[in-house]
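Hi team,

Filling in the usual template for the complex we talked about on Friday. All components are listed, including any nucleic acid strands or ligand strings, so the model treats them as one assembly.

SUBMITTER: L.P.
PURPOSE: interface mapping
COMPONENTS: two
RESIDUES: 380
SEQUENCES:
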Amino acid sequence: MELLEQRIRKDGKVKSGDVLKVDSFLNHQMDVKLFAEIGLEFQRLFGAEGVTKILTVEASGIGIACITAQYFDVPVIFAKKNKTKNIAGDVYTSKVESFTHGKIYDIIVAKEFLLPTDRVLIIDDFLANGSALMGLIKLVSDAGAALVGAGIAVEKAFQPGGELVRSHGVRVESLAKVKSMSEETGVVFC
Amino acid sequence: MELLEQRIRKDGKVKSGDVLKVDSFLNHQMDVKLFAEIGLEFQRLFGAEGVTKILTVEASGIGIACITAQYFDVPVIFAKKNKTKNIAGDVYTSKVESFTHGKIYDIIVAKEFLLPTDRVLIIDDFLANGSALMGLIKLVSDAGAALVGAGIAVEKAFQPGGELVRSHGVRVESLAKVKSMSEETGVVFC
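RESULT (copied from the run log):
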């Protein structure tokens, strides 16, 4: 998606440790006009798939997921991060490893909101090592729901997440795929 | 807002410990059509105030804030919760006490996104004891920005947050004000 790539080139900042800072428009300050274009593109890609729910994970996926859901006319569920081990109630749960923060945490979704009859589109802002996405996929699978695919804003294609998830037969559509990046060259897209 | 009150009456669940569960449409599963009506109402209330930024706090405020921002044509910033004490970079920070979880945590916003020239509307899903809202107000104040007010979906008017925040001269507009609630009587609005 040209618009998103342009924006990353213009406002993204490459930091040491393979960090791509896009917090001026994507995951701290959020440009909802850009999110509308992102949502429309996901609707173009997945609009024929009979999606009944959009699933994301807190926190930075929620904005894109909600704006996108308007084009699908379906509700959003966000998986909650649960650092404690006290998971209350009737929930599906997965373990996710955050490489940025070096922590393992649980993500949970109440069973009542993810049904075997659902056709689920996962939406997230980033795909890097794929741990969060694999965790979300497990929630859908545990619920016996159908997974339509995953719509990702920015995929760091030089990290293993995309290949990992696609090797499980999941359709992953990333709107900007970063091939390489460095403070010298900036961001190069696939 | 009649539509939101109706929805709370229909789908909200009163639990022990003054808990109002609205997670089927507001803060776990999210009804983005309802959010659009909420956003329009906030636009009606605050649309003449020259709002330049909408500020919320992760996680459950983000969806309502993003949908609302579409009607104001402004970006959203969400304050990040930071349970560690390692706050990196140039940020404004406040302490917030969660009565639900019994924890004190920091919320942070990068200084570059909250400017003295900004006119800020705070949006959140709940107002109960007011700790999160007072924390957000402090961030706006520390930035030297103008605070237009706070738009809240559900205020538990029998808890002290609303009075606390209004006593500081802040305009608080709550779309559903819960006067009392119990498992027997259900939810009574002001």
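MY TAKE: The helical segments of chain B are 2-11, 32-46, 61-72, 131-143, 161-167. The mean pLDDT of chain B is 94.

Thanks, L.
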